[in-house]
Fold this sequence. Notes:
The chain is mostly helical. The protein has helices at 5-39, 42-61, 66-72, 79-110, 116-123, 125-130, 136-142, 147-170, 175-194, 207-231, 233-241, 244-253, 255-282, 284-320, 328-354, 358-409, 415-444, 450-478.
Amino acid sequence: MSERSPLRRRALRGALVTVLGQGAGQVFRVVSNLVLTRLLAPEAFGVMSIVYLVINGLTLISDVGIRPAIVRHERGDDPAFLDTAWTLSVLRGLALWAAAAALAFPLARFYAMPALAVLIPAAGVVSFVAGFEATKLTTLMRSVALGRRVAIELAAQGIAFVAMLAAAWIAASVWVLVIGAVVAVAARVALSFLAVPGRGNRLRWDRAAADQLRSFGRWIFVSSLFTFLAMRMDVAVLGRLVPPDVLGVYSIGITVVVVLRDVLGRVLSSVLMPVLADAQRSSFASFAARHAQSQAVLLHGGVVLIAAAVVASPPFFALLYDPRYAAAGWISQLALLALWFGLLQSASQRASEALGDSRSVALSEAAKTLATAAGCVGGWSLAGLPGLIVGSALGNVVGWALAAARLRAHGVSVFSADVRYTLLGAAVASVACGLPVLLGARVLGREPTPLETAAFGFAAVSPLALSAAARLQREMKKVAPAQPEPAAP
């Protein structure tokens, strides 16, 4: 058995735990959305989308790569290194809270939403509290020991869900969403100290560790700035162009996209990047082999998830949400186009980070941002909201192309596999969407119901899903522990 097999077993087990954990977490999220859309008006979600835009934006543009550095760096288990990273995180959280308070009033005037002047500083508490999260939670990623981490995240979500229901029972307003965000991060931070074995953190400043963190994080900071601008440009633009209720429907419509993005992003950051970083510390040949195997499994599974989401989105919103959110179905389908190319870009970026090349990540994010801006503006002017959604996908295409080109410069080519799976996904999604219409007309003699549409569509996706499951099973067999030889009689 290969000396890398234990790592491969942890990687596959970690991927399974991550997907299942994220799936359970997203069930919490969807159930919460379903309940809250019946308690709150669409305007509340529209206003809160701007609040999230500000808080998440500040978090991303101040990202100095503390977590990737802990995962990748050879000093990632050194207490002095970890305490310095934690000290930087605490200081960053305090600065983010102050920045949120400073921006609140100008943004309230810019978006003509007076409530933002109070909501943004209140939600900024999330950034401050998150800065205290114990590094023990990140070191679990380094060793690809993810079960406890996933359990903590689910527990925090569950606590936040209960808190939101209690708050909504008292007063159904946008404050319910703010309370949920603050409670979730507070629970996560508390559990990061209480539920993970090992030493806690204390304030400490190791100059060498700080220099190493700063050296690795300078390009992470630049890439995170552009990541935010590209990822949330749609909300920033729509906040000025449409009323809050329309923005609220849009924010609900991209729920499916956000769910899948979070699941796939967690697999990339918690499984793929640590595994590749570990392989890279061994040799480049080991890195290249591990990357090829991981890419095949990731893209095969990604095609299945996104094609299934294309099929499920319209029936999902038609059956579970009230008529105010009817447009969410087609909004979700269009937004999934950007998600696919975002997955391809992120996969190449995590590989570059594992090689220590955070500069390439920054460059691809910068190109993505410029293309997203052009796509959003041009798309809106040509076709309104549908045009803006499709135009925003242009940025992901450009970002992926540059990220893949930069990775190829390191001797790792992904273009052929990425293009092959893109064409496969487009073909499957087209058949899955067209089959219900065709069968509805010829077999049923009428337009299919939402449930019938989902059934026909999933039938078209099922062969690809079965092949993805078979591929994963083959990978599991490769890394199964060898059975001991029977003792001689």
